[in-house]
Amino acid sequence: MANSVPGYSCRSEQVKLAAAIAHNFEAKEFLVAEVGTGVGKTLAYLVPAVLWAVTEKERVVISTKTKALQQQIAEKDIPIIVQSLGKDFKFAEAKGRDNYLCWRKYINIISGRRKLDLTEQEFIQAILAWAEQTATGDRNELKIDGRLLRSWGIVAADRYTCWKEMCPYTEKCFRIKMLKRLESADIIITNHALMLSDLMLPFKILPEYRHLIIDEAHTFDKESFDKLSCRFHRDVFVEYLGQLYTRTPYEKGYLSMLSGK
Ligand code: SF4
Q: Measuring from each residue's beta carbon to the nearest atom of ligand 1, which residues come in under 6 Å?
């Protein structure tokens, strides 16, 4: 590690945490750990996670609360691990659909099939070179003015306008490429929002996994509650009751239909 991280010095808490995580992979147990800032917790879990994924051929998913940490792991920490461990492994990032350029929307725009306002035209000009050469279609690669980035939605993939298997650009589709990368990845880096929503989906985005590391877990209970719970408001309840039976202005609802039979 010292050869890969400039100024790296071995910290006993970091080694202890890495050893505890490695033990938990072996023992198939749960571990809750808290360490102070500056200990280097990311590297402490990445080392055992990568070693486990490579030697046991079992995928490990790492979930963060913030996209900033997700990006830091992918762009800074994983390269350190690659260099210091010298292991051959595949990693992939899983992000929400709207992070990816929809090639069909983009082609529609540059072929003039969609009218744009002035800011949108400026935005398209700013992303043209990137769109033609990006391998991931991930908006995170774009280094453009925040004012222009507000027009991202006109080219962003979204579930409502996606043509799915009817799309003529499935070969080029960046989201489909992302899903394929996930399928073959040993290590997947994602965020809590996507990981939790995925639990509720009939067709999963994340491929099967048995090992999960939840970083930035201090608000995970609240996030889990928000994503996994079902909200039932009084107004919705009254509406459902109304569908069952309403007396005014005239009798209607399923119950009155049944009683009339
Ligand atoms: S498959 Fe969906 S997201 Fe992908 S390019 Fe086609 S319409 Fe866009």
A: 102-104, 157, 162-164, 167, 169-170, 173, 175
User: Could you give the CA distance from residue 156 to residue 178 in angstroms, rounded to a whole number?
Assistant: 14
* CA 9 to ligand 1 center in whole angstroms: 47
Range 12-90+185-228: architecture per CATH: 3-Layer(aba) Sandwich (3.40)
Ligand 1 atom at shortest distance from the alpha carbon of 105: 8
Q: What is the pLDDT of residues 220-252, one digit of tens each?
A: 999 999 888 887 788 888 888 888 988 878 888
Looking at the CA of residue 176, tell me the nearest atom of ligand 1: 4
Question: What is the position in ligand 1's atom list of the atom closest to the CA of 100?
Answer: 3
**Residue 213: strand, helix, or coil:** strand
Q: What is the ipTM of this complex?
A: 0.99
Domain regions of the chain by residue span = 12-90+185-228, 99-166, 233-261
Check: CB of residue 7 under 8 Å from CB of residue 1. Answer: no
User: Cα angle at 152 between 151 and 155, to 5 degrees?
Assistant: 115
Instruction: Indicate which residue's Cα is closest to atom 8 of ligand 1.
Output: 102
Sheet containing 187-191, strands listed edge to edge, beginning at the edge strand earlier in sequence: 91-93, 187-191, 60-64, 211-214
Segment 33-59, tens digit of pLDDT: 998 888 889 999 999 999 999 999 999
Quote the tokens at residue 11: 């910290």
Taking Cα atoms as reference points, which of 86, 98, 101, 92 lies closest to residue 74?
A: 92
